[in-house]
Amino acid sequence: MGILRIGHASLKVMDLAAAQQHYEKVLGLKTVMKDKAGNAYLKCWDEWDKFSLILTPSDQAGLNHLAYKVEKDEDLDALQQRIEQWGVKTQFLPEGTLPSTGRMLQFNLPSGHEMRLYAHKEYVGTDVGTTNPDPWPDDIRGSGVHWLDHALLMCELNPAEGINKVEENTRFMKEALDFFLTEQVMVGPEGSIQAATWLARTTTPHDIAFVGGPRCGLHHIAFFLDSWNDVLKSADVMAKNKVRIDVAPTRHGITRGETIYFFDPSGNRNETFAGLGYLAQRDRPVTTWTEDRLGSGIFYHTGDLVPSFTEVYT
After folding, report:
1. Which one of 18, 37, 197, 249 is at 20 to 30 Å from 279 when CA atoms are compared?
2. Bridge partners, residue 34, by sequence
3. What distance in Å separates the CA atoms of residue 146 and residue 2, rounded to the nearest whole number?
4. Is the per-residue pLDDT at 60 higher than 90?
5. How far is CA 28 from the centre of its chain?
6. 239 — phi, psi (to 5°)?
């Protein structure tokens, strides 16, 4: 019962054609359709639902909403009760609000980010099928990412004013949506301020993460790759296509993931993320990073914080 995994991200882009080229040529997604409003829908080769990324034309970059898939349609009704009991308003969007998608439960996180839950999306299958499949398709392009893996959202954090949307979002995700905490960053006097959290519903280190900052926004969406070599290849693909790279290939201490960060043409940050890191389970002890080792937590090899990584987001 309940939430299975991330379903899709809807991003605002300022040049739809340039964004499509980026996600298709650099990351390897395919455009599956466009709607009458001009929005583009894309999927990765190893995903079986119809789409995992929506690009919507806009005059600014950023996140429209983040969606997670639940197991059964009746789970939406049960989750609506839990969410509203927590004090968050919800509404149901009818089937067909998004193409090939069933009804959706819409609400805002305490941070203000819009989230949607749904049970049904058209099944189209992976590019290699389910009978005697090859390990990858013949027409793989660019980085050849497998699937949309997770998102990191920036949340307002102002301890002097008593504002900590990281902590509020984390409690909401645990109590209303049944996520569990895998890692956290604790700062301030005696490590009393929860400044960043990573939460899961699956067995990967995180299906969503929250990091404190001066304002709310989207830090990045991440796509999964198999290995460190695939991350290096993705960097080569980005260099060939003159993509703006934010952080060159490295390893996180947090999640143990292997990573590269870069921007789409509108300025939305992307990540290609490899390595499952560890087996996330509800009874696994929560990993805590302290303020004095935050650099190693984020960029394990150098231990140095990159200013743009925490200061630039949409």
Report:
1. 249
2. 40
3. 24
4. yes
5. 17
6. -65, -40
Which of these, 71, 65, 72, lies nearest to 91 by C-alpha position? Answer: 65
- Tell me the pLDDT band of 276, cut-offs 50, 70 and 90: confident
Residue 111 buriedness (CB in 10 A; 0-12 / 13-18 / 19+): buried
Work out the average pLDDT over 245-271. Answer: 95
Counted residue by residue, the chain has a size of: 314
Q: What is the pTM assigned to this prediction?
A: 0.96
Active-site residue numbers? 150, 206, 220, 252, 261, 271
Angle subtended at Cα 74 by Cα 87 and Cα 207, rounded to the nearest 5 degrees = 65
Q: Distance between CA 55 and CA 75 in Å, rounded?
A: 28
Cα separation, 65 vs 47, in Å, equals 19
- Cα–Cα distance, 303 to 314 (Å, whole number): 25
Least Cα distance to 173 among 121, 218, 117 occurs for: 117
* Cα distance between residue 287 and residue 202, in whole Å: 17
3-state DSSP of the chain: CCEEEEEEEEEEECCHHHHHHHHHHHCCCEEEEECCCCCEEEECCCCCECCCEEEEECCCCEEEEEEEEECCHHHHHHHHHHHHHCCCCEEEECCCCCCCECCEEEEECCCCCEEEEECCECECCCCCCCCCCCCCCCCCCCCCCCCEEEEEEEEEEEHHHCEEHHHHHHHHHHHCCCCEEEEEEEECHHHCEEEEEEEECCCCCCCEEEEEECCCEEEEEEEEECCHHHHHHHHHHHHHCCCCEEEEEEECCHHHCEEEEEECCCCCEEEEEECCCCCCCCCCCCEEEEHHHHHHHHCCCCCCCCHHHHHCCC
- Would you say residue 62 has pLDDT above 80? yes
pLDDT single digits (tens) 156-184: 999 999 999 999 999 999 999 999 999 99
